[in-house]
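If you are new to this repository, start here. Below is one unmodified record pulled from the training split, so you can see the exact layout before writing a loader.
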Amino acid sequence: MTNRTHREVRLAARPTGPVTDDLFEIVEVPVPEPAAGQVLVRNSLMAVAAVMRTLMDEVTTVPMPSFGIGEALHGAAVGEVVAAPGTDLRPGDLVEHRLGWREYALLDAGEVRRLTPGELPDPAGYLSQGPTALMGIDRGAQVRPGDTVFVTGAAGGVGSLAGQIAKLRGAARVIGSTGSREKADRLLKEFGYDAVVVRGAGSIEEQLRAAAPEGIDALFDNVGGEQLQAAIAVANRGARLALVGALSTQLADGAASTTPIDTLSLLSRSITLRGVALYDHLDLIPEWNELFGQGLRDGALTFPHSRLHGIEQAPRALQELIAGRHLGAVLVEL
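And here is the target side for that same chain:
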């Protein structure tokens, strides 16, 4: 095994604007040898996510380690165990871990999670952002039967699942936001949305008022900015507003972004504004996998995603995600 090599993607420089090819370097390195208690995994799939743009900066407020210059990037991945001396894992076991952006990963046994064969129809489903979507709907926005729910960033990997989960929880009306008419049409036809607000097609608040003439009861916010302000303006008394993402900041080429909020408006209508992050709700992952597997099999849920092929496509995958060129999750087959 010591004569074998594999490829990994390293961060070559920190961005000062848009994410470009020259920020990445694809290098060939020896396949590592596992010691006792370590696991060597041949990665088969990895995911890219908007937070990776934030992690390219040297200092962030995200509770995750930033990428290091000259080091391989990291992120969610699924693969098969090649060797795992001194552990209860066996070659061929399917596992999930956090060392994507490389064809082989070497991890301590405690850093991998063995996946149950057949739990999901497609192993790609383990790379969905469904746990975040479930967290935001159930614990953040606390969606109830009969609610009118607004999901911002509805065409992303999180939002495309959040709307479906809201329907499962009995929401009467689910409204999404996205950046193109084409995506809006797909959200309406394929993913159960009742109405869609399109960025750039006029005032967000006016579009939202037209889509929710009786106001909104719950917000699943992936974006912040104007869309959060519009949601607050249209929110009913006692509405629950969950902040799950901050794409307006994460994708702003490193520029700071803030959202002015009328706190008296929140107070006078008893509106709850709550930030929720998955690292506080990891117990939801098994619940999500069970719900997702059943939903995929019976047709109650779908997993919108795009796949690019080859590790050399990973930088492009992140760039296209940031540019909004895909609907749903963006994965790379390694």
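Two things worth knowing about this chain: Residues 284-298 form the longest helix (15 residues). DSSP finds ten helices and 15 strands in the chain.
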